[in-house]
Amino acid sequence: MGKTITVLYVPADESRPVETKEISGDLLREVQRMVDGYVEQVTFSANVVGLFNVDGPNLALPLNRRATVYLQRAFGWTNSGFGAVGNVVFAASDAMTWSDVDEAVIEWFKTTGSL
Q1: Chain-centre distance of CA 15, in angstroms?
Q2: Residue 63 has what DSSP assignment?
Q3: Which of 11, 41, 88, 96 is the most exposed place for a label (fewest CB within 10 A)?
Q4: Residue closest to 87 by CA, chosen among 24, 21, 26
């Protein structure tokens, strides 16, 4: 079947919960499904990558306030002042492959009451 990893899924729609998900098989296709389009990977640290819809700003996807607040507080990230848009998936990356989301990311969302 292929590799199985655990990711943290942060929907832009705040009425939907932040949740950990196990994905397997074609990881790229699974993440594309979760972010509703082509994937852009942004590496924030050795243990944290954010996976976004690369066309999010052009498609006028909604601001993902929960992901934006996390990225601003944890990494000082601003994305040119716009923040994260659309659904966001967090994982870890070792070179060219994705791996399980870092436990510290999950803990941050738990402490904020989002997870």
Answers
A1: 17
A2: B
A3: 96
A4: 21
What stretch of H or E contains 52? strand 49-53
Give the residue with greater pLDDT, 73 vs 35: 35
Residue 113 pLDDT greater than 60, yes or no:
yes
* pLDDT (tens digit per residue) in 32-44: 999 999 999 888 8
CA-to-CA distance for 4 and 70, rounded, in angstroms?
Answer: 25
Residue 31: its H or E element? helix 27-35
Q: Which of 55, 70, 51 is nearest to 5 (CA)?
A: 51
Range of the domain at 34: 4-111
Give the total number of structural domains in the chain: 1
Determine the Cα–Cα distance for residues 86 and 11; give it in Å rounded to an integer.
7
- Please determine, for residue 98, whether its predicted confidence score (pLDDT) is greater than 90: no
